[in-house]
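Okay, can you check this protein?
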Amino acid sequence: MSTLALGFTLTFVMITIALSKWQKLGLEKDIALGTIRGSLQLLFIGYVLHYVFKTENIALIGIIIAIMIGIATHNAGKRGEGLQGIHWRVAVSIAVTEVLTLSLMLGLGIIKPTTQFIIPISGMTIGSSMIVCGLFLNQMNREVASSKEEIEALLALGSTVRQAIQQALQRSVKASMIPTIDGMKTVGLVQLPGMMTGMIIAGANPVEAVRYQILILFAFTAAAAITSIILSMLSYKLWFTKEMTLK
C-alpha cells in the first residue's frame, strides 16, 4: 500500500468524527486521540519488529512478550477496579495461557521457533486473553451485584465462599467465552478473520491461509477457556471480606 493510499484511509476517521458530532456523542476527541495514538503505536512496533526479525534475539522476544502481558494486564485489570490484587491475578492468568499455548505450538511443531511466528501468535493470544479477562470481571461484578441476596443466604446456611459464589462464577466464565464461541460458529460465513485476510492480500494461497486461521481459531478457543477458568479460581475471594462476608 502506498503512502498516499494509506493517507486516504483517514477518510474513514473523518466520517466517524462527523457522525459523532452529528449525533452529539461527544466522541470526537477520543476518536482523534485514538487515531493518532494507534497509528504511532503501530508504526513504532513495526520498526521494532523489523529489527527483532532480523536479529532473532531470544532476549528481545522475551522482553516484547513481557511488555505485551504488562499492557494487557493493565488494561484488563481496570475492569476490576476496587478489587485489591486483581492485577497480578490477571497477569498470572494471561502469562500461564501464553506459556501453555506457545509451548504446545512449538512442542508439537505447529509453528516454527522464529520471531516471525512467535511474536504475532503471542500478540494475538495475549490480546484474546486480555479481552476474556475484561469480560469476566465485568460479568462477575454484575453477577455479584444481582445475586447478592442469594450469595448471602447461602453463606448464612453454612456454605463455603466457593459454594456460595459458584453459580456466579460459572455464568461469568460462560459470558467471557461467548464472543470466542460465536466467532467459531460464524467464521468463514459471516467474517473472514484478520490473519487469513492479511495472508490472502499478501498473495498467499487461500487454502494455506485457511489452515493457519484454523490453527488460530482452535488455539484462541482453548486460550479463552484457560484464561477465564484460571482467573475465576484466583479471584473469586476478592468479592469477600477477610471475615468471608460479601463486600
The mean pLDDT is 86. The radius of gyration is 21 Å.
